[in-house]
Amino acid sequence: MGVVLLGRLAVDKRSHGQGIDKLMLLRALRQTEEASRVIGIHALVLDALDDDACRWYMSPGWGFQALRNDPRHLFLPVGTIRKLGIS
Fold first, then answer.
1. Where in the chain are the domains?
2. What is the dihedral of CA 48, 86, 59, 5, to 10 degrees?
3. Residues 52, 20, 66, 5: is their CA dihedral positive or negative?
4. pTM
């Protein structure tokens, strides 16, 4: 099965703290889940920019997991996206 690669999710520093990052990630998760119903998608993958971003993605609210070969290379299975109940 394939994966969706989230190339970059970034918010201008002047807009930090407004929840735009969460809205953008929610949209990417929704679109990944919707596409998985049509084509074979197993997970959403991304490369976290730094340790802070890594912690944010891996927080209990999102639940991304690190791949074994690179702690900043993260993935979230479509099954987990469905459990988040955001679609």
1. 2-84
2. -20
3. negative
4. 0.86
Catalytic residue (one of 44, 46, 54, 57): 57
Active site includes 57? yes
Beta-bridge partner residues of 41: 2
Tell me the pLDDT tens digit for each residue of 60-75.
889 999 998 899 999 9
Helix, strand, coil tally for the chain in percent (to 5):
40, 25, 35
Tell me the three state secondary structure of residue 47: strand
Tallying the residues shown for the chain, one arrives at 87
Strand order in the sheet with 70-77: 2-6, 41-47, 70-77, 65-67
What CATH architecture applies to the domain 2-84?
A: 3-Layer(aba) Sandwich (3.40)
